[in-house]
Amino acid sequence: MNEYVNLTLENIEDEHICCAIGDKKHQLGVNSKKEWIKSKLEEGHIFRKLNARGKVFIEYEPIETAWVPISGKNYVYIYCLWVAGSFKGNGIAKELLEYAINDSKEKGMSGICTLTSKKKKPFIGEKEFFVHYGFKVIDEIGDYELLALQFDGSETPRFNDNARNMKIDNQNFTIYYSNECPYVEYEVKELTEYAKENNIKINFIKIDSLEKAKNAPCIFNNWANFYKGEFVSNTILNANSFEKLISK
After folding, report:
1. Could you tell me the strand order of the sheet in which 144-150 lies?
2. Which of 6, 86, 147, 202 could form a disulfide with 135 if both were Cys (CB 3.0 to 4.6 A apart)?
3. Rounded CA gap, 125 and 80, in Å?
4. Helix 239-246 to helix 184-197 angle, to the nearest 10 degrees?
């Protein structure tokens, strides 16, 4: 039987957070992620992981306090559901999702939602998996879709109007990011050094509050790239992938 652990203020310092396990270059990001989780636990943030050394977890919280440009009432938002490598095929994703669904119902929530896409994109859940459990598309922006599983007839969440812009005034390469992901701190540092060495202008805009997250000018889960004023992707970049992207 699979054993799971929910992060709490009492155990978070002793538990890993699944991503970037054992990679020292990401330790600053891991620390920042843990601080971010700590700040949100009282808001109902849940980080549940397999009690094993692997990237296997689900992370969610009430939509009202979720750092995404989505508005709604009495819904839960799933940031990430990740089951990697050798852990796949053992029913773990099913158990994690069912835990989140049952937990939400027990708390009297009206439903649960998450971000997916029409075409597979990195750091975003697989649409088919959620559809299998009854999730339906309730809103969309381009290739991105908001899926929800309704428990009652309450109004479903919607992308905020500002998120539908998918454009900014600044023409320089611009990256919106937050500490929701432990990888971002290192990549911001690497890209900052790369830009300086190559005399390239890259703007970094840190989403460090709920207000900023709700008012993001695009689909946002933890990282968003803009170039020449247009949204490009939600892919977390390093120096090599940045070069490839701007050379297209």
Report:
1. 4-6, 46-50, 56-62, 75-83, 111-117, 144-150, 136-141
2. 147
3. 7
4. 60
Residues 150 and 88 in one domain: yes
pLDDT 10s digits, 75-108: 999 999 999 988 998 999 999 999 999 999 999 9
Same domain, 85 and 187: no
User: Is the Cα torsion angle 72, 9, 52, 22 positive or negative in sign?
Assistant: positive
Q: DSSP letter string over 56-104?
A: EEEEEEETTT-SSSEE-SSEEEEEEEEE-GGGTTSSHHHHHHHHHHHHH
Domain stop point among 105, 137, 160? 160
Residues 39, 44, 48: CA angle, nearest 5 degrees: 90
Q: Residue 132 is encoded by which pair of tokens?
A: 């299998």
Question: 153: domain range?
Answer: 4-160
Between CA 193 and CA 31 the distance in angstroms is: 21
> Which residues is 111 bridged to in the sheet?
75, 150
Q: Are residues 41 and 91 in the same domain?
A: yes
Q: Which two tokens stand for residue 90?
A: 């053992």
Count the neighbouring beta carbons within 10 Å of the beta carbon of residue 245.
15
Instruction: Among 110, 138, 160, give the residue marking a domain's end.
Output: 160
Q: Are 223 and 172 in contact (CB under 8 A)?
A: no
Query: What's the confidence (pLDDT) of residue 231?
Result: 97
Per-position b or e across 69-78, b if 16+ CB within 10 A of its CB: bbbbebbbbb
Dihedral sign for Cα 120, 77, 37, 39, please: positive
Span 144-173, average pLDDT: 96
